[in-house]
Amino acid sequence: MKCALVTGGSRGIGSAICQKLAEESNYHILINYQSNKEAAEKTLQEVVNKGATGEIIQFNVSNAEEVTTALSNWQEKNPEAIVEVIVNNAGITKDGLFMWMTQDDWSNVVNTSLNGFFNVTNFFIQKMLRNKYGRIVNMASVSGVKGTAGQTNYSAAKGAIVAATKALAQEVAKRNITVNAVAPGFIRTDMTGSLDENELIKLVPVNRFGEAEEVADLVSFLVSKKAGYITGEVININGGIYS
Amino acid sequence: MNKADIIETINGFLVEEFEVDRDTISPEANLKDTLGLDSLDYVDLVVTIEANFGVKLGEADFVGIATFQNFYDLIENKIKVKENA
Fold first, then answer.
1. I need a labelling partner for A116 at 20 to 30 A (CA). Which of A62, A63, A110, B56 fits?
2. Which residues pair with A30 in a beta bridge?
3. O-(pantetheine 4'-phosphoryl)serine is carried by which residues (chain B) (predicted)?
4. Which has the closest alpha carbon to A96: A146, A153, A41, A145?
5. What are the backbone dihedrals phi and psi of residue A25, each rounded to the nearest 5 degrees, phi first?
6. Residue in B with minimal Cα distance to A174
7. Structural domains of chain A sorted by starting position, each given as residue range(s) with its CATH number in brackets
8. Which residues of B touch A131 (CB under 8 A)?
9. B46 and chain A: CB distance < 8 Å anywhere?
10. Is the pLDDT of residue A203 over 80?
11. C-alpha separations of A60 from A37, A158, A166, A229, B10 in Å
12. The domain that contains B75 carries what CATH number?
């Protein structure tokens, strides 16, 4: 059984990626969620409705012990399963001016977006190397490539993801493992739900927010066999807001 | 499992895994050169050892490992530590 794991797969871009992979790949979809089981089950239902198989798997990506325990238990129950695709999508925001930012707001964002990448990817990387094939896609952000005021923590975490993507890509390329990052701009999801869309689209040359499905299309391509010569890249998907 | 069994098991999977002639493997031969290991190839050693003996190897374990004999000794010690745990 060949699998694709999507962290933070229950909602927003993560859910759209799970559904797109259900449509366009033959992978068994592992939908990771942290707390919203109902949303994860809804995503799973969509995956099944599209003719694919999948399952939900609960862990907090920022908690190394929890990640190792959950994934080890899953691997024990599925000894023949091979995770060929990892989409490190889980992320949180705790926005605010840096001068008011608390240590917790800094650490929580970095722990989820950056350490989550380490915890999950490191668990699988030896198996992927052994398997001599893999696709890793890390969800970065326009904030991680240009920096966004009010998001110093998120920008730092996503910027680090960009650098980690480029470094790891060089380490593992020889074994047919590609590592790329996707950097979305304003995408219409729960995460951007509180933003003033009418005001912000003035900043976007395409004159609209993006859709989660559009990001999912890009991820689906990057994890496909067609994208084997693309690695270490950061692909912006932001309606022209930054390049 | 005695040491001779350990060596036989290791040599058996090294021949298969790294496609080397069994005659090239000797206790004094250089492990890295004989098997043609690059940095990523160590993952194959690590995973195969874990699968065969149930012991985990880390990067630090390979410090000072030059010959096959060094490697056999390392695995034997790891197995002993595991059995005594």
1. B56
2. A5, A55
3. 39
4. A153
5. -130, 175
6. B40
7. 2-237 (3.40.50.720)
8. none
9. yes
10. yes
11. 12, 18, 25, 32, 38
12. 1.10.1200.10
What is the domain extent for residue B51?
3-20+29-84
Residue with token string 């869309």: A197
pLDDT of B24 higher than 90: yes
For residue A69, what are its two tokens? 């325990």
Residue A241 is predicted with a pLDDT of 94
pLDDT bucket at A135, cuts 50 / 70 / 90: very high
SS3 B38: coil
Cβ-based contacts of A127 with chain B (< 8 Å): 47
Rounded Cα distance between B76 and B85, Å, is 14
How is residue A139 written in tokens? Answer: 């969800």
Asked if ipTM goes beyond 0.90, one says no
Q: Which residues of A lie inside 8 Å of B (Cβ-Cβ)? A: 126-127, 129-130, 171-172, 174-175
Contact A234, A165 (CB under 8 A): yes
Overall number of domains in chain B: 1
Question: Phi and psi (nearest 5°) for A92?
Answer: -135, 160
Please determine, for residue A194, whether its predicted confidence score (pLDDT) is greater than 80.
Answer: no
* B43:A129 CB<8 A: yes
User: pTM of the predicted model, to two decimals?
Assistant: 0.92
